[in-house]
Design a protein that fits this description.
By secondary structure, this protein is an alpha+beta fold. Helix content is 38%, strand content 33%. It starts with 13 loop residues before the first helix and ends with a strand. The relative contact order is 0.13.
Length: 138
């Protein structure tokens, strides 16, 4: 008597049976990774602008200005930086710093030129969102 069972039919692995789903999953992972890496790179560049002389000076002047203190309150925090700063001896800076305090929100706008290691600013002001007014920091 032969009590052995017949061999089970060959069954393809899950990946081969669901190759479209596997492909879509792999593309989704690659897309998510590329978005995450791009966001990290953008954050790194924007965060590095926080250590440039134009940003530091603009935030110091904004924090020391009594009109800005009255409009936005203390402490004044810079949330997000947009723009560009050329770190050369003959560089140019154009920055927008989105700031907020306990009383409101605003934007610090900076434009300047680096002439042989000394920054000369042509524009430095705080635009208050609530009142649509500008406060000159120069």
């Amino acid at each position: 008597m032969n009590t052995s069972r017949p061999a089970a039919p060959y069954r393809k692995p899950w990946v081969q049976r669901h190759w479209i789903l596997t492909l879509l999953l792999a593309l989704g992972v690659l897309f998510s990774l590329s978005i995450a890496i791009g966001a990290w790179m953008m954050y790194s560049v924007m965060d590095s602008m926080r250590y440039t002389p134009p940003f530091i000076e603009a935030m110091e002047r904004a924090r020391a200005n009594p009109e800005v203190k009255a409009a936005l309150g203390e402490p004044l925090e810079g949330r997000f930086v947009l723009g560009a700063v050329e770190p050369k001896d003959q560089g140019v800076a154009k920055l927008f710093v989105f700031v907020h305090g306990p009383k409101g929100k605003g934007e610090v706008q900076v434009e300047g030129v680096n002439e042989q290691g000394t920054w000369r600013y042509s524009l430095m002001r705080v635009n208050i969102d609530a009142t649509k007014t500008s406060i000159d920091l120069l």
